[in-house]
């Protein structure tokens, strides 16, 4: 590990006890076992905002766990519309918002209503493995649109997207922006070109924007549905407070339906067929959006520091690997193929460095040889993760 001055510790973010992390039952630290450092699944290690804890505790202390009185939907519908207006200037309609348990269910329900077996769905690759697995399990034809690794970072090949949509007769584009796993944030110009392709080919756009609030300046998230009236009419937006506030287990996500027909189809379903959101999930999301912004600003300073540290160490100690500073998310996407390892890098890092990362074929075609590293942890844990990764991937000392 290269020598560096330790940063000023940030209380609540850098004082994590590893015994506490391992004692929790969540999969990130529990599954790998006591000898392995986990930097794989996309959970942050940090405690949730105090405002969220207080709101949940208050609901439990009041024994407020009965059936909620929400004749017109949960209060999150209005809260979502307000947050979109305040953050992005998007006049999202509260009456078009519906609650689900998580983002994967949101995607599956929209695909179920809007497509049938055999229908073609364009999707960026690499991509979030459960999204790709959903397309396979549901019998939809995934049409990969590979992200391009350039000297200036990861980019969508928009000409390839246009050609693939036309050639494969796609009905849907699943757009992940900010992008998991590359961390790319699409610009207004790129989004306008995608909107033109969607209009030209009459595509439904399912826009996963769950990482929107984890975007680093000067990059700026732009909701796809905010681009134009046409984009609004053909876009279904998926989001949740869970990524930006570390609330995965509350099981609460939101879908904003742009197409009238699709919203009518959704509302014509039996009301409980796809489950209902937990009132505690609503309480936690409200508290995060209402009182968690100061916590989130501090979070972003820590994540910004960590993403730069990952980039610095990789550049200094593993100069052959390719890595671009992510523009959003807390995930680093690392190309180890120039190392010529001869074995999957996830296995090498686990076996030699005692660090568990994600990567490889579950992220799509041509993802073998890549690693995804979650840097949402304390400075001390991140240093040990990076030490294990560089130890595992460094060439032998006698190598020429």
Automatic annotation (TrEMBL):
One Pfam assignment: Aminotran_1_2
The name this protein goes by in its record: cysteine-S-conjugate beta-lyase
Record-listed E.C. numbers: 4.4.1.13
Cofactors, names only: pyridoxal 5'-phosphate
Keyword annotations of the record: Aminotransferase, Lyase, Pyridoxal phosphate, Transferase
Domain Aminotransferase class I/classII large, first and last residues per copy: 46-386
MF terms (GO), sorted A to Z: transaminase activity
Species this protein is from: Streptomyces cylindrosporus
Similarity annotation: Belongs to the class-II pyridoxal-phosphate-dependent aminotransferase family. MalY/PatB cystathionine beta-lyase subfamily.
Enzyme class label: lyase
Top-level lineage group: Bacteria
């Amino acid at each position: 590990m290269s020598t560096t001055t330790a940063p000023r510790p940030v209380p609540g973010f850098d004082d994590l006890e590893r015994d506490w992390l391992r004692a929790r039952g969540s999969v990130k630290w529990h599954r790998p076992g006591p000898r392995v450092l986990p930097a794989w699944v996309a959970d942050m290690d940090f405690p949730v905002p105090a405002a969220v804890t207080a709101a949940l505790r208050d609901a439990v202390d009041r024994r407020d766990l009965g059936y909620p009185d929400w004749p017109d939907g949960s209060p999150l519908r209005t809260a979502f519309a307000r947050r979109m207006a305040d953050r992005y200037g998007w006049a999202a309609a509260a009456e078009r918002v519906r609650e689900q348990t998580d983002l994967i269910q949101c995607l599956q329900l929209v695909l179920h209503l809007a497509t049938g077996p055999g229908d073609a769905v364009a999707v960026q690759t690499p991509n979030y493995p459960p999204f790709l697995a959903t397309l396979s399990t549901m019998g939809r034809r995934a049409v990969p649109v590979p992200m391009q690794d350039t000297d200036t970072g990861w980019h969508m090949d928009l000409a390839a997207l246009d050609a693939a949509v036309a050639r494969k007769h796609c009905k849907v584009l699943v757009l992940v922006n900010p992008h998991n796993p590359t961390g790319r944030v699409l610009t207004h110009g790129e989004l306008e070109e995608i909107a033109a392709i969607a209009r030209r080919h009459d595509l439904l756009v399912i826009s996963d924007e769950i990482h929107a609030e984890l975007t680093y300046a000067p990059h700026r998230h732009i909701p796809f549905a905010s681009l134009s009236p046409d984009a609004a009419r053909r876009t279904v937006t998926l989001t949740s407070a869970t990524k930006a506030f570390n609330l995965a287990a509350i099981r609460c996500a939101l879908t904003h339906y742009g197409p009238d027909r699709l919203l009518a189809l959704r509302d014509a379903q039996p009301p409980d067929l796809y489950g209902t959101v937990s009132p505690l999930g609503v309480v936690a999301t409200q508290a995060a959006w209402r009182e968690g912004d100061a916590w989130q600003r501090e979070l972003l300073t820590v994540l910004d520091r960590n993403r730069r540290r990952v980039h610095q160490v990789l550049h200094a100690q593993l100069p052959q690997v390719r890595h671009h500073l992510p523009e959003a998310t807390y995930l680093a996407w690392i190309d180890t193929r120039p190392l010529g390892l001869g074995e999957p890098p996830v296995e090498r890092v686990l076996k030699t460095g005692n660090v568990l990362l994600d990567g490889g074929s579950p992220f799509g075609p041509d993802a073998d040889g890549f690693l995804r590293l979650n840097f949402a942890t304390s400075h001390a844990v991140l240093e040990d993760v990076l030490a294990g990764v560089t130890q595992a991937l460094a060439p032998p000392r006698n190598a020429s």
